[in-house]
Every structure is written in C-alpha cells, then in structure tokens.
Amino acid sequence: MGRGTTEMEVGGDGVAVIIINNPPVNALSVDVLFSLKENYEQAIKRDDVKAIVLTGAKGRFSGGFDINAFQKGTSKEVKPGFISIDFLTDSVEGANKPSVAAIDGLALGGGLEVAMACHGRICTSTAQLGLPELQLGIIPGMGGTQRLPRLVGLSKSLEMMLLSKPVKGEEAHSLGLVDAIVSPKELVKVARSWALDIAEYRRPWVRSLYRTDKLEPLGEAKEILKFARLQAQKQSTNLEHPLVCIDCIEEGIVSGPRAGLWKEVDSSKMLQSSQTSKNLVHFFFAQRATSKVSGVTDIGLVPRKVRKVAIVGGGLMGSGIATALILSKYSVILKEVSEKFLQAGIGRVRANLQSRIKKGKMTEESYEKTLSLLTGVLDYEQFRDVDLVIEAVIENVSLKQQIFADLERYCPPACILATNTSTIDLNLVGEKTTSQDRIVGAHFFSPAHIMPLLEIVRTQRTSAQVVLDLLDVAKKIHKTPIVVGNCTGFAVNRMFFPYTQAALLLVDRGLDVYQIDRAITRFGMPMGPFRLADLVGFGVAVATALQYLQSFPERCYKSMLIPLMLEDKRIGEAARKGFYQYDDKRKASPDPEIKKYVEQSRNMAGGIQDPKLMKLTDKDIVEMVFFPVVNEACRVLDERIALKASDLDIASIMGMGFPHYRGGIMFWADSLGANYVSSRLEDWSKMYGEFFKPCAYLVERANKGESLGAQVDLAKSRL
Ligand SMILES: C[C@H](O)CC(=O)SCCNC(=O)CCNC(=O)[C@H](O)C(C)(C)COP(=O)(O)OP(=O)(O)OC[C@H]1O[C@@H](n2cnc3c(N)ncnc32)[C@H](O)[C@@H]1OP(=O)(O)O
C-alpha cells in the first residue's frame, strides 16, 4: 500500500490547486513526491492551467520528508539530485508557470523546502515554518541550505537551521520568508489570485535560488560562517552534521547556488547513513512511542478530565510539581503541616515562576494569573473535590502510609492517588488502604518544573484507567511519560545505580576522580558521576545506596569513599565541598584535599591497584562506567519493569542526561553489539568481581545474536 498521495483540481480561473494528502502531518513520502511530480507535469502540460497553488490537506502544509523512510528505507530507488535538482529546481522553480505555496499549520523540513521552490508563499499567522533536519542528524536535503539564506539572510537562516528552530507566520512574514499573512479561510483564495498575478506579470516572478539581495557581502558572510562554526563546535561537540550544514551553505555562497545544491545532495546521502542520524531518528520515534502503552492506550478507554490537583508536601519536589501544574493551568492545592513550611513551599513556587520572568519566558501579568491557581492549606478539608493527589513528602514509609490512609478518607472515591516516591514499593505505601487500584507512582525528576521526564509507576493492581489519566496529565504538562513497573528504584534510578558505583570501583582501584568525570563529560553527559554525586548530596547518595544494598546485595560495590567524606561533613555542593570545591558562583574546581579520602578508601578496599587500569583510554572508562548500567537495564527489561527497550533509551536521555545523539543507553549498546558488551563485562567480572557479571538476559541475547532492543515477550509481563 502506498504512503500518501497528492490530488489536483483545476479551477475555471486557470489555477491548478495541488493538495498534499498524507495524514497526520502530510509527510513527503516517496509516493507523495512522485505523485506531486506527476501532477506538476500535468499542470505544466495542460493549456487550461496558467498557474499552480500547492497546499496541504486538513490545515497542515507538510511536516517534511517522511522520517519513516530513514528507518525502513523506501520502495523506490531515487537517484541523487532527482528531487532537489531535477524536480524542485528545474521543473517547479524553473517552470514557465508560477507556483504559490498556501501554508497553514506547518511547513517543516522538506515541506518548507518545497514551498521555497515556489515563486510565492502565503501563510496563516499560526503556521510554523522551519528547517529542523539537524535534530535528526541530517541537513536540509531539498535545497534548504541554499534557499533559506537567500530568503532571510545568512545569520537568521543559520539560527533556524542550527537550532532546528521554526518561526511563526508573523515572524516569517517580517523576515521575508512569506509574502503575505491571511486567515485560514482566505488562504487558498488569496494564493490563487497571487499565482495569477505572477503569471500575468502583476507581481514579480521570483526564483529564490538566484536571489542575492538578502545575502551579506562575501567578506562579511565568511566571518558569520566562521563564527557559526566556532559556536557549533562548542555547543555540539561530538557532532559532525552542523559543520557539514555550514559547509554546504558556504559552498553555495562561494561557488554559486547550483554547486551548493550538489554539495547538499552528496552530504545528505552521507549523513543519512551515519550512526548519529540513526540514533536521532530512533530518539524521535522512541519519544513518541512512550505514550503508546499496551493494555492501556489500545483498549478503547478515554482519559478522565483532571481539573483540580492536590499536592501533599511543599518541599523541593512538591513545589516543583506544583509549578509544573499551574503552568499548565491546573488548579492546585498545596498542603503542608505548618504555616512556616507552607509559606516556604509557596515561596519556592514563586521563585520558580520569577526565574521564568528573568529568562523572558513569562510576563508579570501571567505570573499573577498563574500564581492565583495555587492555594495553600494546612488540612485535608479542601481535598473533597480533587481529581488527583500527588504525595511528595520525605521518603518515610510509615508517614506515607498514614497520608494515604487519610487521603482515602477525604478524597472522592474516584480520585487518583499518586506518590512521588523515587524508591519505595508502592504496595507498601498503600498497605493501609483498600484503594490499590487507584494508587500509582508519579515520579518526577528534580527540578520537577524543568526536567522533561515523568516516570509513571503501576503495580499489578493499578487500573489501566488511572495510568491513562496520568498519561494525559503528563502530556498536558509537557512531560514525556514512561510507564514502568514497581520495584526498588523503578526503572530510571535502578538502571543508573551502577553508574556511580562503577566510578567508585575504578577510583578504589587506582583511577583519578577527575579523569573519570572528564571522560564521561567528553562522551556527552552533562556531568560525570562525581560531579553528579556532589549535586545530589552525599546524604541522599548513601541512603539510596543502602536501599540498593538491601535489594540487590550480590551486585553492589561497597566503596567507603563517600561515607568517609561524609564523616568529615563534606556533603557535596550544598556545603561547597564534595569531590569538588565550589566558589560563590557554584563553579566547581578539583580539590587536592580529596586525595586523603581516596587513599583511605583504597586502603580499606584492600589496596589493590591494577596497573592495567592506569592505562585506560577514555573509551574504556566510558564502557566500564556504562556497561554495568546497560546490564541493569537488561534486568529491568527481563523483569518487565519496562516493556520496551526504547522506553529505557528515553529514560536515560531525559532522566539522566545520556546524550540523545547516541540514541539512549540500549540503542547505544546495540550499536556496539550485545556480544561485545557481554564479553567485556564477563572479562571484567573475572578481574574485578560480581559487580560486572553480565545478567542472563544480556548473555542470552548476545549468544543468539539478537539486539537488546528487540521486543521482549510481553506474555511474561508482571504488569
Ligand atoms: C529532505 C528533507 O530536508 C528532510 C526532512 O524533511 S526530514 C523531516 C523534517 N521534519 C521534521 O523534523 C518534523 C518532525 N515532526 C515534528 O517535529 C512534529 O511531529 C510535528 C511538529 C510535525 C507535529 O507535532 P505534534 O502535532 O505534536 O504530533 P507528533 O506526535 O509529533 O506527530 C504526529 C505523528 O506524525 C508523525 N510524524 C511527524 N512528522 C513526521 C515526518 N516528517 N515523517 C513521518 N512521520 C511524521 C509522528 O511520528 C507521529 O506519529 P504517531 O502518531 O504514529 O506517533
């Protein structure tokens, strides 16, 4: 079956309207592009056609080239340059009949590139126009690197491409990217008469590719490109495609737009088969797949409306969650135990909003309006009509049990009862209630109003309806949800607990703390394990480590390094002293004093330093720190705590900052090969103990030559 088509209607006015039709976003599949080409040929041939209007069905021009084709390939072989040069440049832009693009909704990537090959563009004020290809590890491949700079100037086009940042209709108009803004109702009508005006020489016949009026003089252009290269190298270390994009733009400016088009064609082909592009395309689909949950979103249920939310606990997490909710227009009640704590909680919400004002993301007026959605309370009286409660108090089982028993008494019987615990078994939390079907985990990551991930934890008794309702709330507060099962640490924290432990093991065996952090940040993590431990605080680190020690004693590495530092009141960034020392501006710098703790810890670990470890490359360090994480992720899948490896990819990226351009933890492991990961772990386990022992799931997949990302058997699911 084909993927999409175009339809053509020729009106009595001599205008052929060609409509792109490929729901939901009118993506340009190869089928759509071939159909478009056929209709163009017809329109050019027919004597009753004077001009052409190109538009998209159902209020969306086009979301760009069909990204599925990057993963699955296409049914037809297309020769290089066929779409960009033969069709768009020579047949559409070079035609003797003018085309006008009528843009509503979105014109992204290939969608905007097709529109830029037209001789005029009309759009609605809400339309989004942009070239976001770089977010997929590729560059615009249908002339975008050549035409966008010629329409909006070099600086703005670089910003739009390098940041994958679209512009809205009004801005597109003031930039000169579109010629007029009209209402959706008028769109096609105005485009028709615009096209006729061009055909009859009442308006200029503009071929964007040959315009030079917006381009800066050569010397200035070269300076702008030089600066852009420096910026790209700084902001996108490890990435090649932003630099390739700049090279293509430069080629067009220096050697002419046709040479630029050919360089773009060749570079696009090369980048499409790069590992980075595969990783980023995987990330695109994996992110969308998280909200498709088998047994929840495919059984005909409809999410219930959540209007009013109560939060118990106004600490760092509770106030962050409250901020996220009021920002999405939920009415929120914040409960604390005393006036003092309540005011502190509300103060934190205020500060979160104020910081948005400082960053220009919020006006004073919307600040007041948003804050008016928050009510502080000291008892449960106002909980009688809430639709959702999120408990966010300290990690104390009996306190949580008491709170849930109270919630059961005060909240309506259908109210969703969620806990923000990051480790405690949900069955334990709800032990003193009879409401197990509506108890669910809503695990936010700190700071909750900023971090994009929401881990939704369900027990075997949580109802599908409750999970669906929370998925809907997640969407409304712009969080990416992953639905996981119930166990110590759930999916995200559990998967990452070996991260710090591996780093500690390496230090006990002779490696330098800062060398490890450097290798991990060069790999693309926002910070290394030791800098992260400082940020989280040693108190939390030790408490969490104890929980894992209780749950998974056989594979915990017990280093004394953090407890030793804790004894001396080095507790991390909060005290300005952890693995690093911190100045007034919270800038971290290595601290020579930690040497003594390291020595002590090494002695307590038996003083075994391994000369082999002294010669580790960055790559080895990265693998020794992350392969234990992959190993734990495999266990999480094997136990069906997560149902899809791609959910763990998203969790690693959005919860832990794993570089998205590496595709996420499991996709990255698969790019190296399950067999490689398993055999390296096996070797290390012989040298350094059980901590590295590959789990049965990993060994089995490695032996069978299967990828770690291949679907698990859902029949065994515990959810
Ligand atoms: C040669 C060229 O230069 C190369 C290119 O054009 S590459 C493509 C460039 N285009 C892009 O990067 C745009 C990617 N898409 C997006 O940013 C967003 O999907 C959007 C802004 C278009 C719509 O966002 P939103 O309304 O929130 O819906 P969203 O859930 O993201 O997408 C709806 C569906 O359309 C699909 N989709 C979106 N863009 C697509 C595309 N270009 N190709 C194929 N499918 C696409 C999504 O996968 C999703 O499918 P699903 O329902 O099965 O999960």
Automatic annotation (TrEMBL):
What species was this sequence derived from? Ananas comosus
Q: Where does the record place the 3-hydroxyacyl-CoA dehydrogenase C-terminal domain?
A: 489-582
Q: Where in the cell is it found?
A: Peroxisome
Where does the signal sequence lie? none
GO biological process terms, semicolon-separated: fatty acid beta-oxidation
Keywords noted in UniProt: Fatty acid metabolism, Isomerase, Lipid metabolism, Lyase, Multifunctional enzyme, NAD, Oxidoreductase, Peroxisome
Q: Name one Pfam family in it.
A: 3HCDH
Family, per entry: In the N-terminal section; belongs to the enoyl-CoA hydratase/isomerase family. In the central section; belongs to the 3-hydroxyacyl-CoA dehydrogenase family.
Gene3D superfamilies attached to this UniProt entry:
1.10.1040.50, 2-enoyl-CoA Hydratase, Chain A, domain 1, NAD(P)-binding Rossmann-like Domain
Annotated ranges, domain 3-hydroxyacyl-CoA dehydrogenase NAD binding? 308-486
Q: Name one GO molecular function term.
A: 3-hydroxybutyryl-CoA epimerase activity
* Reactions performed catalytically: a (3S)-3-hydroxyacyl-CoA = a (2E)-enoyl-CoA + H2O; a 4-saturated-(3S)-3-hydroxyacyl-CoA = a (3E)-enoyl-CoA + H2O; a (3Z)-enoyl-CoA = a 4-saturated (2E)-enoyl-CoA; (3S)-3-hydroxybutanoyl-CoA = (3R)-3-hydroxybutanoyl-CoA
PANTHER family reported in the protein's UniProt record: 3-HYDROXYACYL-COA DEHYROGENASE, PTHR23309:SF35
Pathway participation: Lipid metabolism; fatty acid beta-oxidation
Primary place of residence? other
**Which cellular components does GO assign to this protein?**
peroxisome
PROSITE patterns given for it?
Answer: 3HCDH
Output this protein's name: Glyoxysomal fatty acid beta-oxidation multifunctional protein MFP-a-like isoform X1
